[in-house]
């Protein structure tokens, strides 16, 4: 005979604090009514707010737990949620006939979302792009499920009604939510490239020290007569022999030699004789 006896259901109350009983919520609303009748800076008001916080804290903790595993420590989430609780206590108006919990939860969740928006970005980006990031993630997920591929840039632009430039700015901003540390290991010892990510970004520019000399040389060449400029270009940049240069200039090889010698002498003066 099959045993139909079921084991009593148990709950782990240490994971998420359970909501208080309705009678305690009514007590919180009664305290809020009393709070509205006393001065906000009085000792009585302070005692009332403390008691209200104690009563509804489990509800706040449960709301904060909805945002776990998103890169923010649970204790930090709870502290932000408590900040929303204090704002809700100050902003609640018992005369409007709205239950306090119904007013409290949107305030708490809004405070947590604002924390994610304003404090958890690796790069400071415009607020309108931060607010649209969740919409972008939702669109990409739904589009990928329906089309078995990620949306193209033009499809994202069409969905959000953005220009090409705005789409580029939007995608760059969305990618700035998280960043990799420059101390992240990069490469392998076997390949001889072991180091950090920072080492791949800043490298010595071997041409940097010659920038001034190259700009001075460019200006000096431009001051040469046209025939000499042409000979310099063919000889030193084109790497042509003097016989070929002579054909280009319509002169003898001996004349090419004298032209190049005169041009080089003039360029040397530009570098070494000028004060």
UniProtKB/TrEMBL annotation:
Domain of life: Bacteria
One GO term (biological process): DNA-templated transcription initiation
Keywords linked to the UniProt accession: DNA-binding, Sigma factor, Transcription, Transcription regulation
Domain (RNA polymerase sigma-70 region) ranges: 57-121, 131-197, 220-269
Compositionally biased spans, kind Polar residues: 1-15
GO MF terms, alphabetically ordered: DNA binding; sigma factor activity
Region (Disordered): 1-23
InterPro entries the record matches: RNA_pol_sigma-70_dom, RNA_pol_sigma70_r2, RNA_pol_sigma70_r3, RNA_pol_sigma70_r4, RNA_pol_sigma_r2, RNA_pol_sigma_r3/r4-like
Pfam families, per the entry: Sigma70_r2 (PF04542), Sigma70_r3 (PF04539), Sigma70_r4 (PF04545)
UniProt-recorded name of the protein: Uncharacterized protein
């Amino acid at each position: 005979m099959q045993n139909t006896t079921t084991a009593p259901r148990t709950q782990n109350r240490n994971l998420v604090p359970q909501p208080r009983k309705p009678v305690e919520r009514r007590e919180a609303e009664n305290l809020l009514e009393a709070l509205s009748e006393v001065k906000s800076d009085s000792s009585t008001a302070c005692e009332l707010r403390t008691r209200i916080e104690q009563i509804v804290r489990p509800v706040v903790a449960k709301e904060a737990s909805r945002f776990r595993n998103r890169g923010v420590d649970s204790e930090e989430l709870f502290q932000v949620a408590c900040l929303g609780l204090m704002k809700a206590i100050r902003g609640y108006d018992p005369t409007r006939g709205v239950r306090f919990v119904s007013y409290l939860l949107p305030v708490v969740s809004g405070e947590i979302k604002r924390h994610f928006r304003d404090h958890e970005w690796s790069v400071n980006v415009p607020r309108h792009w931060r607010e649209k990031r969740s919409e972008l993630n939702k669109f990409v997920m739904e589009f990928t499920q329906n089309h078995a591929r990620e949306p193209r840039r033009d499809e994202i632009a069409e969905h959000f009604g953005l220009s090409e430039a705005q789409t580029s700015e939007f995608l760059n901003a969305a990618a700035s939510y998280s960043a990799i540390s420059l101390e992240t290991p990069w490469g392998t010892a076997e390949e001889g490239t072991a180091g950090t990510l920072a080492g791949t970004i800043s490298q010595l520019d071997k041409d940097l020290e010659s920038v001034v000399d190259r700009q001075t040389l460019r200006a000096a060449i431009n001051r040469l007569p046209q025939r000499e400029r042409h000979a310099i270009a063919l000889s030193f940049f084109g790497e042509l022999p003097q016989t070929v240069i002579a054909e280009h200039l319509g002169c003898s090889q001996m004349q090419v030699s004298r032209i190049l010698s005169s041009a080089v002498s003039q360029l040397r003066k530009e570098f070494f004789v000028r004060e």
